[in-house]
Amino acid sequence: MSKVWFITGTSKGFGREWALAALERGDRVAATARDIGTLQDLVERHGDAVLPIELDVTDRAADFAAVARAHERFGRLDVVVNNAGYGHFGFVEEITEEEARAQLETNFFGALWVTQAALPFLREQRSGHVIQVSSIGGISAFPWVGVYHASKWALEGMIESLRLELIPFGVRVVQLRIGLVLGVEGGVLGGLLTPFEFGFGGPVGSGRQWMSWIHRDDVKALVLAAIADDRWRGAVNATAPAPVRNTEFARMLGRTLGRPSWLPVPALALRLALGEMSGMLLGGQRVVSAVADRLHYAWRHPDLGSALAASVGR
Fold first, then answer.
1. Band of the pLDDT at 190, cuts 50, 70, 90?
2. Binning pLDDT at 50, 70 and 90, where does residue 273 land?
3. Is 223 inside a domain boundary?
4. Do the domain assignments include residue 256?
5. Which of 137, 178, 205, 255 has its CA at 20 to 30 Å from residue 148's CA atom?
6. What is the mean pLDDT of the chain?
7. Is the whole model's pTM more than 0.90, yes or no?
8. What is the total count of domains within the chain?
């Protein structure tokens, strides 16, 4: 039986990839974006199976209207994916009130409003899934992304409470804590490839910090696995089964590119290249994929060597 998805933030990144994956398997998708012009190609390819909706998730009234429109169009809701969000980069001391509020309005309140709008439909159906997109930044803390962490830690508490509240109604809640994504566009490799290709790559910081990575193919596939099996629920660490220390990551990336990997990368250069993601690289935490492994998820890229090769096309 085909499903109806409501996905926020589908103009690019994983929101778009999940929308495409759902459509390609015959499902229907209410796809939201600030600029629905970015969704025109989806409509041209998939026709009435796509409902493009212009939406700023910080607008509570607009969130309720968008969810109601999707339900009216398709007759039900099966999968609600709270994906819209961003990471603000800056020292806690220097963050302005406007910046802090904007981060929380999008990452926390946007997800709350969309979820509140969808819950009456899901409870009435006594079925469905709420997929909350988060990151390992919701269970750890790294420098220069304090207000981002605040938004993700808030989501952790709220979504876990929601999971417990919805058990009697047959609605499952999954919180996807995404690790460092191996990808050139929108992933950790974008800012690292250039110095490596010119022979100036190497470990960052001490090199001993952990890198809990995941290939973007597995991020996409984990959501499809979660909605197909009732055993997936609660917090899921979207990280590959073999995290490595940064020194090993640099060595493997150098080998994949056929370049040296001995020159340490200064922290300032990393901040300039990767923005908020640099804090996660310099801090690091070993996060394991316990749920996915226990449920025998078939990893597309379980080892770093194959994941890097697939990411850079080698």
1. confident
2. low
3. no
4. no
5. 205
6. 92
7. yes
8. 1
Q: Which residues are catalytic?
A: 134, 148, 152
Read off the CATH number of the domain in which 159 is found: 3.40.50.720
Residue 34 falls inside a structural domain: yes
Domain span at 174: 4-178
Over residues 136-182, the pLDDT tens digits come to 989 888 888 899 999 999 999 999 999 999 999 999 999 999 999 99
166 falls within a domain: yes
